[in-house]
User: Fold these one by one.
Assistant:
Number 1:
Amino acid sequence: MVCQSPSSKMWVSLVSLLPLVAFALALPSKDCEHKVKEVIVPPRGWTIFGPAPPDHLIKLRIGLPQSNFDVLEEHLYAISDPYHERYGAHLAKEEIEELVAPHPDSVTAVNGWLSSHGIQEADIGRSAAGDWLTIRVPVQLVEKMLDTKYHIWKHTASGEYIVRTTSYSLPKDILDHVELIQPTTMFGTFKRLKSTIHSISKIDPQIQAQNLPPVFDSATGLTVDASCNTTITITCLRQIYNAVGYTPSAKVGNSIGIAGYLEDYANRADLQTFFADQVPAAAAVNATYNFVSVVGGLDPQDPAEAGAESDLDTQFAFGLSFPVASTFFSTAGRPPFIPDIGTPEDTNEPYTDWLDFMLSHPNPPLSISTSYGDDEQTVPESFAKRACAGFAQLGARGVSLMVSSGDGGVGDGDPDPATQECITNDGLNRTQFIPGFPASCPFVTAVGGTILFPEQAVDFSGGGFSNYFSRPSYQEAAVKGFLSKLPKGTYNGLFNPNGRAIPDVAAQSDFFRVFIGGQAFHIGGTSASSPTFAGFVALLNDGRLKKGLPSLGFLNPLFYSKAKSGFNDITVGNNPGCGTEGFNATVGWDAVTGLGTPNFAKLLKLVT
Ligand SMILES: *[C@@H]1O[C@H](CO)[C@@H](O)[C@H](O)[C@H]1NC(C)=O
Ligand SMILES: *[C@@H]1O[C@H](CO)[C@@H](O)[C@H](O)[C@H]1NC(C)=O
Ligand SMILES: *[C@@H]1O[C@H](CO)[C@@H](O)[C@H](O)[C@H]1NC(C)=O
Ligand SMILES: *[C@@H]1O[C@H](CO)[C@@H](O)[C@H](O)[C@H]1NC(C)=O
């Protein structure tokens, strides 16, 4: 099958070389008409800077429809429901690949289309399940294939440039065999998938965490060092979350991972310094992490290259779970296109490369945290849904995935409420709360933030309701309870009351004592909450594996049902944004701290 627009050079050459064939092809064929696949309004803040250079290379990702994703989803909910007989019966890599593999007709149709543009099998990268194809092609060819025009777009506020289009088309007979193609309409750029670090301040490395008399809290029955109100350490987290004295094993097949992106790198020397400061048992054996490079991600160990996000994540996740096997994944990816120096390639976004890698991994870590996200509305819905389906596949493998809920309260990712825009990207300019992605995906565990002990919600804790994903049944009762307590008419039109609600859980989020490039810092953000929660999930998995039980896998259905009583309900605080006071932390689930923070000893009893 050959579909070419009449202006195509290739068609012209076919005419001259093969007049008879060309005659046949030149017959007007309805199948060869292009149909619009996706069209968007250019998001606010982006303007056209100029035409895209024709030879600019694009790494194009083509998503083929996953033929049986609904079956996979059914399996996932069965094996994640603690009251189901199949609870914990995680699927094998091959079983999942079979369920998400595209229909052979889609493969054939798309292969034919690619080869009609001179793209050979050897030029095509395929994911393990065959549901993603990757090709590197110059703009001029992509424009022909997608019957579109790319431009260099400039983001006025940040000065970033990217090469994108606002619509693309496909030949009619390909339309249903392709779910999405990027980068086309994705304006949420790699760089703007920012880490959710709220604040960072340098502290004197000589000052050790203070040792004031501990505080007893009669409500929880816990004793916590007074210093934990102003400096969070591994000791503080074990005290606040009731895990003092629990020793995990290195020998039961347990594992934990941190996903790093955007050239933000973890540093081993910093981890050693942190261990010496807070985890003596790890320091005594010079414990370190395994490094895994994803599509060429680097591992520089120069102190000047130490990344705040990666150091925070590795130090707390691995510090809490030592001696559980730990891995830092570094996914390659360059900042956006720079027109002046002619960046040779326009990178996509991080999740799909990382997901392809994890899903093809024989043994992905059982508890994983990532602290990267962006406003949901900057990610095209088609892309968000497909990445979310990838997170579901990881859950079905028995992996628990934690993500930060965001640092803008009910507002956008902008930590400063005064400059939050909260205006929709769809051309209508409506004022609306701005949920974050991937927190809004129902197949991840979104972690919000708390401070102090006794704990209360931190004001920047990202929370709210997705505009892309409808509410999953596992949180229906909890969220309905919350909504029914809202004063009538509250924030009418500002949020989608039927959407997936964020966050699921929470953990401490400020004053984390971290070492970066040899210096001690205090860091805050839900960037700290997510790896903390992942560390406790690793401890829960330890308890299960020691008893011969499978890993916890996708957590949410368990948390909202059988394990609900294992959380400390946070009832003080709120998350302002968009010129409002945001939502209140309340009794039961709320859109600031979710179900609450972990009580490890209670949770352990509930899951073992
Ligand atoms: C933290 O500060 C609050 C007051 O803001 C106080 O009631 C509480 O006892 C302090 N907690 C600790 C652990 O010192
Ligand atoms: C840990 O590293 C230090 C410094 O490199 C070295 O002196 C020490 O022997 C190591 N300890 C162990 C247990 O490997
Ligand atoms: C929305 O805002 C943009 C940018 O300020 C403006 O160009 C556009 O006309 C606005 N649209 C509507 C419907 O108000
Ligand atoms: C939050 O609580 C305050 C104080 O009780 C109340 O005035 C306000 O209406 C509540 N806001 C929401 C959104 O529930």
Number 2:
Amino acid sequence: MGDAPLIPLFDVQLEQAHIDAVADTLRSGWLTMGPRTQEFEQAFAEHLDCKHAIALANCTAALHLAYLAAGVGPGDEVIVPPITFVATAAAARYCGAEPVFADIKGNHDLGIDPDDVARKVTPRTKAVCAVHYAGYAADLPALRAVCEDAGIALIEDAAHSPSATPVGDSRKLGTHGLAGCFSFFSNKVLSCGEGGLLATDDDDVAATVRSLRSHSLTSGTWDRHRGHAHGYDVLGLGYNYRMDEPRAALLTARLTGLDADVSRRRELVHRYRELISDLEGVTVPYEDAEVDVSSCYVMPVIVDDHELRDPLRAFMLEERKVQTSVLYPALHELTAYTDRASELPRSEFVGRAELTLPLFPTLTEDDQDRVVASLADGVRNLTRAGAATGG
Ligand SMILES: *Cc1c(COP(=O)(O)O)cnc(C)c1O
């Protein structure tokens, strides 16, 4: 075991065709806001079967613009889950609004709980953001009902969930609310380094987002280049949230392999679940049927005795060279968000008890066996050590 190489949490392997697509773009001499961005937007809109797909600098920008398009402004509130990346909540603060946390459902489903969302709605609430944790759909029918009752927008943080659907519904995640926000950050299911996209079927939202993406200018560089516009006006306070051409080209090239990557992730997750199913002391969230329609971004497990979680992670890394992560520490317990703390016991437990196992399409079954053995040995050793000291 001493010489075994590290099994990373995540790995990205580009094919020659992906590299060629970027090199061709660099040779073309047109590096931003051009035909490759349009081509990617068209391809992703078709993939999602939605009307508008707008490429952006990253998913944080997509969330910011989605909230703005939903009318979120100073003094408003946006309801978000605490088990998410900080961007979901930070984007509300960019609008001058406050993120308000609603608890997650529990250990078996780390998505936001619609009943707690309903309890957290106030006259100042403008939107609810559903995070499709690890690529598993949040409870969209119930969330939509709460939002319709309250007359507020449902935004989807689909950073984890390209090409996924809810169980029994063929519409892709990211197309169920007013807007869906995607991330192409390097460790995501479909990646280009830094990139994002907003999907919507709403023409007004699309027009707002396209305008805000580029400083609320009345015409783009590419339009002017093609002689379609001679000058421009600035209609409001906009941003530079544009994606550039090399990234768009890389994404178009990689999009063709997305479904195969997701299939492989699902196989690996099914195999993990089978290998872990008999292991005492850990709980695996979600059901097999949900795996079949998830994008399987990460492989979460819950360590039932949460005090073992950190020593277990240390054992796996130091003794067995298996990298793990925590997705996520509960956001309302982190420094910049603590003054918004309220009672969110299920999120607090998951934030202390969750660990994420290595998962990527090129993970081998041998390495997967090593990961599971390190998890099983770690849990067994730590449980026995605890029992011996009467802990
Ligand atoms: C990665 C991530 C984001 C932010 O995406 P960026 O493209 O890095 O801005 C937002 N929400 C969730 C749930 C994420 O995992």
Number 3:
Amino acid sequence: MTDERLIFESSAPGRRGASLPADDVPADVGLPAIEPELLRPGTGDLPELSELDVVRHFTRLSQWNFSIATNFYPLGSCTMKYNPIVNEWSARLPGFAGIHPMWPAPLVQGALALCADLEAMLAEVSGMDAVTLTPAAGAQGEFVGIKMIRAHHVRAGHPRRKVLIPASAHGTNPATSALCGYDVVEIPVGSDGLVHLGDVTPHLDDEVAAIMITNPNTLGLFEREIGAIAAAVHEVGGLVYIDGANMNALCGVSRPGDVGADVLHINLHKTFSTPHGGGGPGAGPVCVKSVLEPYLPVPRVVRVEGALALDEDRPLSIGRVRTFQGNFGMLVRAYTYMAGLGGDGIARMSERAVLNANYLRARLGGTLSIAQDQPCLHECVFTDQSLAGTGVKTLDVAKRLLDFGFHAPTIYFPLVVPGALMIEPTETESRETLDAFVAAMETIVAEAKADPDRLSGAPHSARVRRLDETRAARKPVLRWRPVGATPGTGGGDEA
Ligand SMILES: *Cc1c(COP(=O)(O)O)cnc(C)c1O
């Protein structure tokens, strides 16, 4: 089975997935008729297939997926860890999966209790005072965080103008700040990969709304001066946003709230094992210190006379950011994961994530160049420097890894490292898997020297070779048209 037609191309006129008995309900049962102009003239060009055709089509497509359930996926900064099956079991319990978000609070006390408990667990692990679970992703969590910071400054009489962001930051940090109306001031990163107080202080004045800082940073290093930097920002009345997407390295070891964070987001779909879902449902809870608590989005889960309720009446709130309680199924999975591990288990999770990353750093250090030659936390960044002169680049190594059954690491990020390969194994991988990955890398680097064409033509085993990713993003083809039909307008170029 090497190729799969579009489901439309497999259509056979008149074929059906199910046959229903003839309709014995009289046409006129006295209900108001739908206005004729609201009725579709027909069903359009829907494909006509049997149930088996449909099942086979989608099952085959699902087998083309590259996922953590099938292969090692060391995508740095993304924490692609295994989502235990028990999470899926609990998310499907009828008492969670079957409830409707419009049901009144007295009927969903269990679901609200799960939200309240998860908020408490996240507050504990992060060292913060209050949590909102509603944001649907890390990026939306950042938006919520910076909106609250702005609301805080506006209430104090002046929104301020600047947000300070280190050069190693995830792209969402400057994007969020700009979206909230702030000027982004880039703080350089030292030759040791860290942010230094001396590079922050020249920018400190009463126009600083916040610093947004990722810890551990995107080089996988703990920001050693973060406490002093946070204190200095507080000194001028600014607030401290810690990007907690990399919490997998810290749980049970260091709490952002203890080093000066006023607000941080946590990616449940990274640290707490819920699926990333191909752009599907994520969850980016935001944790705050009490100074920002009044601004949290509505609704809030609150306890009134012994029962849980949803509070919408919060005059200083930045408002609603998502429907209902966010992606509730993700919250159930994260709750299950955290409750299953317990406090000690969560601490061991982070210790092992750091151990695995350092194992790869040590084992690959002789094969690839290391960006920062010092112990790392949850991920380790390499460069293509050792391949200089072979013509082989980071992209070629990444593509060739697919032939060995490994997903590529994150590449060309962080931007401060030329030709970066950012590898995050996570704690869920066995030593055998890590060794197999090292062996593949050693083979690839040997090939780069002996047979560079083998790499520039990679991947050899995938269905497609190298795609024009820019064109795919800029000119997506979102409309199907029958084979042979003339291209319409607005559907993008022919792909
Ligand atoms: C993943 C990530 C984000 C964004 O999270 P999304 O859920 O993808 O929006 C922000 N910052 C860092 C450091 C990240 O790794």
